[in-house]
């Protein structure tokens, strides 16, 4: 933990000096000094002061249950390690943001959130990077993160107001991306269908899909 913390400090110095690649390498080195994450109960949410910026089956025996429950409890040292991993992964995400590698930034912030699901900075960065990826899936993920933030942040805070604003702007973008990607998918399926049906002198134009009034569609065939 001490060595990882020293390396984190070095990484912070690189980051402040805008040496993004050096900061990234140093944060990764610090992360490598920490034990890997185990499938355990998550620690309590923490503030961002260390961050770089201002069910069992019925057949299971009681002994096995007790063992599993013991394995889920984090020691004080494990809590510290989890917190350190979370901060370093979030900082790695910040480096990727600066390098405009937003898919990698999303992955790094996801790692941070595995150790601390309520890490505000990691949620903010992941949402922002998913917005820049600008796909239906990424925009939907950004909406989820913003909603999580609203459940954490005080209603009167400036951050909460910014998140509310981002959600309002994000909704029409997500809907537009959904329509566009659905249309593109349907065009590809239509092209595939025409390649197959062409062997029988048919095309997808011979099949019409009409609403059945029950939330689904009926298919009609016509020459």
From TrEMBL:
Matching InterPro entries: TPR-like_helical_dom_sf (IPR011990), TPR_domain_protein (IPR052769), TPR_rpt (IPR019734)
Family matches, as Gene3D superfamilies: Tetratricopeptide repeat domain (1.25.40.10)
Annotated spans, Disordered: 34-73
Protein name: TPR-like protein
Organism: Lentinula aciculospora
